[in-house]
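Q: I'm writing a short explainer about NAD-dependent dehydratase for a general audience and would like to include a description of its predicted shape. Could you first generate the structure from this sequence?
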Amino acid sequence: MKKIVITGVAGFLGSHLAKDLLSKKNKVIGLDNFSTGKKQNLSSFSSNTNFTLIEIDVSKEKVMDLEELNGIDEIYHLASPASPAFYQKTPFDTIAVNTIGTKNMLDIAKRNNAKLVYLSTSEVYGDPEIHPQHEDYKGSVNTWGPRACYDEGKRLGEVFCYLYYQLFNLQVKVARIFNTYSAGLRNDDGRVISNFITQALKGENITVYGDGTQTRSFCYVDDTIEALTLMMKNDKANGEIINIGNSEEISVINLATLIQKLTNSSSLITFHPLPKDDPKQRCPNTNKAKQILGWEPKINLQEGLLRTIKEYRIKLGYVG
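A: Of course. Here's the predicted structure. Afterward I'll give you a sentence or two in plain language.
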């Protein structure tokens, strides 16, 4: 039985990852300060005797003194607001968890000779000038704008990972995540799929920002979780940055139309000003994930949306 730490365990990805690892008979220690995570995300496994929850901010020094973090085998460092609606409300906390928090978790990994997977983001590519984005692309990020706290915080987190790999030979891997979704997404976090499905089911206007020609790629949560666990156990991923996402690309307007159709909604699609620094294209080159991990997504967008819509109907009380 492995002893595994998940930071940000009460978040969307963290709770899905914990459920998966517990199902494989691991001992999981979840850390969260509940700034954006929700305790209800833990309800399906909170009574599992192999699960321990510690309410703490991993960017604070006291995390280093937790006795529960001795003798651990693996760390998944997921803690961070991930939605623009949330990280722009708490920009300094967002920077801290991705820099100081990352260094703290790297130090704990070093102390335990443990493996660590750091969840970075496709946001490090900014508004990309090449398409699709591969891991060697250095990005086009604005350091002077409302998204910078997240983009640059994640980029500096990657630097810490690089240094601990190079200087201390720590078994660290960096996953750059591209738009993961499922019904587990909060429907108030402002992300495009949760927004569109909630609006469509409620019969509200579907709000598209800009003209809708900007593109995204969306990866269903089950595929993302599989990729993260493969990264952790594969030593060939040590010291590597790997894009994790689905290369099935769609424009925002086509996504809105598809959700409108799949929900059989009478909602109108309306257009609003594009937020500052919103990228025009975002799609991963996943060749490295295929080569190193033998991984590629299995669930296509329509199937994933149908699963998500079904669960959102239940969440919102629109079953039938």
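A: For your explainer, you could say: The chain has a mean pLDDT of 94.
Q: Perfect, that's easy to follow.
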